[in-house]
Structure formats: C-alpha cells, structure tokens
Amino acid sequence: MASITMANSPATNRRTAIGEHMGIHPSWSVLAGAACTFALLLLARPSEATPVSRTPAPQASSVPLAAGAPRSTAEAPQPPSLPLGADPPAVAEPLVGTFSATIRTWDTSVTAVRMDQAEAMHDLLSAGLGWKSSGHCVDADRRTCTSLDDIRYGTLMQAIDLKRSSGCPIIVTGGTEKGHAGGYFSHRNGFKVDIAHNACVDSYITKTYRFWKVRGDGADLYRPPPAPGPPSDPDVYADEPTHWDILFH
C-alpha cells in the first residue's frame, strides 16, 4: 500500500516556530499559569499563624487590693437610703426650759417666760417628776384637772430643782387650773404648784427651810433663809392637809 504523508499547513508551522523561538513548550505554559493562580490564592487567604479573633478584646480587670489598702472614693460605702415615704431622722432641738435630772442649771434670765401644756409636761416628766390629776385631765378651766398651761418657766424649773436638791419623789397635783385662791402670786398666774406629801419631801422641807408663821387657814409656812445680796421675796412652802402649796418667786 502506498503511504500517504500529510504536510503541515503554513499556520501550524508558524505557531511551532514561535514556540521554539521563545523556548516554551505548550504544556509548560499551562503549568505556569496554574502556579500563578495558586500563589494568588495563598496570598489572599489569612495566615494560620495569626488567626483573627471574632470576639471583642477583654477589658482590663481590676487588680485586687492588698489587705488593709484603702479603697477609692468611688468604691466607698454609701449610707443606706431611707425607705420610700419615710421621714428623715429628726434632729432634736431643745425647747426653752428643756431640763434633765442630770442638769443642775437653768436660764434664770427667762423665769417669766410662759410655757404651754406640752412644753411644761415634757420638761416635768423628763426631769423625773410625777403628775397627778383627780379628774385625769389638763384643762385649766376645770377644777378637777391639773394643768401646766401658761405656767412660768421659773416656777417649773424651781420645782425641778426641789427634786434635784432633795432627792425625793415629787408629784405635782396642782398647777394653773381654776379653783385656787386669787391674787397676783397665784396658781392661775403661774407662780404656784401643789406637790403631794410624802415622808421624804416633808422631812426635807421642814429641816431645810425655816418656820415662818401660821397662815390664816392654819397652814404652817416655811421659807428659805435670806440669800446674800439685795433683798428679794423668798419662796413660801405652805403645809396644807393633802399637799404642799408652794410659791416660787
């Protein structure tokens, strides 16, 4: 059989000549392109040596304080808040004539100041004195009441002084209520108090003060000895059947 030989076309001969001139075989060109693509993919991929964290960076934690170290002002404990609707603690303010059994002085410059029932009763009980009313009331317009309303500051303080100096129980049974004898130096005008008899106070008055005279109604009157200085009206202690009727100037 006769063999048939196919001659290359002019175009094929040109491509082969170009490839041989550049020194690149067609199969190596494909490999070079694949290598470039692979290198680009490696550059675009994040490095495994430095992974990117998807969580926020943690905040700096506080350093524990050493034992006994003072805390900052921001951490200082605050006073507890009051419950909703609660009133703040009241600040005690002494009233005129406020007196304690442990206090031995009072303001003599305001002896004529008049006190109302609440103030006088507060001071009386705070000093350890007692109070008694046959009618269990404080109405100054009722005879059976024992009222301290409108009593003089000096009168109440001297009754408290009597308890302090004698050490005896003192129970007030009469004050500014109606039903007592009239006059300027009277119960109604705030100069007098009645106190109940007891063995302690009876002994103290009769031994400490001097007998003066017998009053028109038969009551023995006692007065303190004259004080040094300008003459002044002394206090008078009248020994009545059920109580001492005392005038404090």
Give a quick set of tags describing it:
249 residues; alpha+beta; disordered N terminus; 9 strands; single chain; 5 helices
Distance between the termini: 171 Å
Which residues form runs of ≥5 with pLDDT under 50?
A: 1-26, 48-103
Binned, the helix content reads: 25-40%
How many whole angstroms does the radius of gyration measure?
Answer: 55 Å
Q: Proportion of β residues?
A: 5-15%
Q: Give the overall shape, derived from the CA principal axes.
A: globular
Strand order of the largest sheet: 2-4-5-9-8-7-6
Structural class designation = alpha+beta
Order of helices and strands: HHEHEEHEEHEEEE
Please report the number of helical segments. Answer: 5
How many β-strand stretches? 9
Describe the structure.
The chain is α+β, with helices and mostly antiparallel strands and 249 residues long. It has a domain at 108-247. It has helices at 10-22, 26-44, 117-126, 153-166, 199-208; strands at residues 114-115, 130-131, 151-152, 171-174, 192-196, 210-214, 220-223, 236-239, 243-247. The strands form 2 sheets. It has a 7-stranded mixed sheet. A hairpin with a 5-residue loop joins strand 6 (210-214) and strand 7 (220-223). The protein is globular, with a radius of gyration of 55 Å.
Compile the SSE list and pairings.
Blueprint: H1 10-22, H2 26-44, E1 114-115, H3 117-126, E2 130-131, E3 151-152, H4 153-166, E4 171-174, E5 192-196, H5 199-208, E6 210-214, E7 220-223, E8 236-239, E9 243-247
Parallel strand pairs: 2-4
Antiparallel strand pairs: 1-3, 4-5, 5-9, 6-7, 7-8, 8-9
